[in-house]
């Protein structure tokens, strides 16, 4: 399961290059200077900002000099901003990258973008590999397209931590897995570690390619580098459109258990010598292996939560917490469901169903709450996470008569524009489910947010 607070695929809206102002806080230095949404910051202390990093770096003091472009009349106006200690400038930008996104130069065998349906919209096939998004938004990058100058910028500006995909360390395995520029990624990574940059690393594990002895070699390499403070290992995911892969760890219990066993001595040594587990397996491995997820203390504060590391444990622990601390809300909701003769269905992907079932049992011991598991036919393969549910599958698998049903949709199936991966809108989906007789709400898929959304939907808050 790889749930997160918001789907991470791209906005569908076209973006103009430049530091365009999206919002200005009233009363802020920018507001006092007359800067308005829709204007563009062309220079900061004489420097044309490439991204939010440049903006923060150049505008770090008590004063900054700007050149501001106003598209209404084409004018460029100089202005000077002053602020008090600790005060923000009051400017939000439309994007964190002002000069455009850096795209991928690799040919990874496991690239999910290469397994998308042929009708997928263009924004989904954009393969970003931009080191700035690693620092600013937590994206994983390979560093294969980073120049020496950019590596020095990362070190000089202290862009830490960085999220870096390693995958393998043996040169021939890396080139087979990633492409001809694979060696460059390791060169840059070594430079960043030498420069004191903290790294959260990732391996996408592909059966028969970078597991087994190669995985052990990669773990040894990471173990020798203290600057890599966490390593996430996630299994290959494939769709029905993949030409290369037709199976993964989800199809092989013993292979999944072998990965768990291989990692255990590394985890034990890290806990003994560093006080952290450091080497982390994604939740899918424990599900695929039929093993219980580890306790919370082994996740080191969840540094790679949004890579699917520890989400099941976090959900289970939060379920226990709300069962203890919000007993009145749980009973209030269950009583309301009984009084209104309404059934509750929490929509989720197949990977999350058993875990969310635990919450449903706490919410309604009488069985008035249950999961509505959506099988992913759109992608197929072993895709089964909640964040990749699409409208086509949801509406095809939901009953035509939803009278007396409160349906909770997971917020993570929608992007920032409230679109699903197959291009449908949240409003249209809600309208269709209501047409079938359902009461519908949308919630972040975790216990506390579920309770808040249900209290509101049932007019109990």
What's the helix and strand layout?
Blueprint: E1 19-24, H1 29-32, E2 40-44, H2 52-58, E3 63-70, E4 75-82, E5 91-93, H3 131-137, H4 148-157, E6 162-165, H5 171-178, H6 182-194, E7 199-205, H7 212-223, E8 228-235, H8 253-273, E9 279-281, H9 283-289, H10 311-325, H11 327-340, E10 343-349, H12 353-363, E11 369-374, H13 391-397, E12 405-410, H14 426-435, E13 439-443, H15 447-457
Parallel strand pairs: 6-7, 7-8, 8-9, 10-11, 10-12, 12-13
Antiparallel strand pairs: 1-2, 1-5, 2-3, 3-4
Helix pairs in contact: 7-8, 8-9, 10-12
Q: Any descriptors?
A:
single chain, 461 residues, alpha/beta, five-stranded antiparallel beta sheet, four-stranded parallel beta sheet, 13 strands, globular, disordered N terminus
Q: How is this structure best described in words?
A:
The protein has 461 residues and is α/β, with parallel strands linked by helices. The chain contains 15 helices and 13 strands. The strands form 3 sheets. Strands 4-3-2-1-5 form a 5-stranded antiparallel sheet. It has a 4-stranded parallel sheet with strand order 6-7-8-9. Strands 11-10-12-13 form a 4-stranded parallel sheet, sandwiched between helices. The two termini are 30 Å apart.
Task: Give the fraction of residues assigned to helices.
Answer: 25-40%
Strand order of the largest sheet: 4-3-2-1-5
Structural class by SSE content: alpha/beta
- Overall mean pLDDT: 94
Number of helices: 15
**Overall number of strands:** 13
Largest sheet: 5 strands, antiparallel
Question: How do the SSEs run, as a string of H and E?
Answer: EHEHEEEHHEHHEHEHEHHHEHEHEHEH
| Fraction in beta strands | 15-25%
């Amino acid at each position: 399961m790889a749930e997160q607070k918001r789907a991470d695929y791209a906005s569908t809206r076209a973006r103009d290059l430049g530091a365009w102002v999206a919002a200005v806080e009233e009363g802020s230095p920018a507001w006092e200077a007359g800067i308005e949404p829709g204007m563009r910051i062309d220079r900061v202390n004489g420097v044309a900002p490439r991204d939010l990093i440049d903006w923060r770096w150049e505008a770090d003091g008590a004063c900054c000099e700007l050149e501001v472009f106003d598209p209404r009349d084409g004018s460029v106006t100089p202005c000077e901003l002053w602020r008090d200690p600790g005060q923000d400038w009051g400017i939000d930008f439309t994007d964190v990258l002002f000069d455009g996104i850096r795209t991928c130069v690799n040919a990874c065998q496991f690239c999910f973008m290469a397994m998308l349906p042929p009708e997928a919209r263009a924004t989904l096939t954009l393969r970003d590999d931009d080191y700035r998004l690693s620092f600013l938004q937590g994206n994983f990058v390979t560093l294969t397209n980073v120049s020496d100058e950019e590596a020095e910028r990362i070190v000089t500006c202290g862009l830490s931590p960085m999220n870096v995909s390693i995958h393998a360390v043996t040169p021939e395995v890396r080139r087979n897995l990633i492409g001809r520029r694979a060696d460059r990624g390791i060169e840059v990574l070594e430079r960043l570690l030498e420069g004191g940059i903290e790294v959260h690393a990732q391996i996408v594990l592909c059966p028969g390619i970078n597991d087994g002895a190669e995985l052990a070699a990669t773990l040894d390499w990471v173990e020798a580098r203290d600057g890599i403070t966490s390593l996430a290992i996630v299994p290959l995911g494939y769709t029905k459109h993949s030409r290369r892969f037709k199976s993964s760890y989800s199809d092989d219990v013993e292979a999944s258990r072998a990965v768990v066993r291989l990692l255990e001595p590394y985890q034990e040594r890290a806990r003994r010598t560093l006080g952290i587990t450091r080497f982390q397996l994604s939740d899918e491995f424990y599900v695929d292996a039929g093993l219980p997820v580890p306790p919370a203390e082994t996740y080191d504060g969840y540094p790679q939560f949004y890579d699917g590391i520890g989400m099941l444990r976090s959900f289970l622990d939060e379920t226990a917490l709300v069962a203890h601390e919000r007993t009145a809300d749980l009973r209030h909701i269950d009583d309301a469901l009984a009084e209104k003769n309404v059934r509750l269905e929490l929509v989720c992907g197949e990977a999350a169903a058993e875990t969310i079932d635990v919450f449903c049992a706490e919410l309604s011991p009488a069985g008035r709450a249950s999961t509505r598991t959506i099988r992913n036919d759109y992608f197929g393969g072993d895709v089964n996470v909640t964040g990749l549910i699409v409208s086509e599958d949801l509406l095809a698998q939901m009953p035509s008569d939803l009278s007396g049903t409160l349906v909770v949709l997971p917020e993570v199936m929608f992007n920032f524009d409230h679109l699903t991966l197959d291009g449908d809108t949240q409003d249209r989906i809600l309208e269709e489910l209501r047409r079938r007789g359902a009461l519908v709400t949308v919630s972040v898929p975790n216990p506390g947010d579920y309770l808040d959304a249900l209290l509101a939907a049932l007019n109990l808050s």
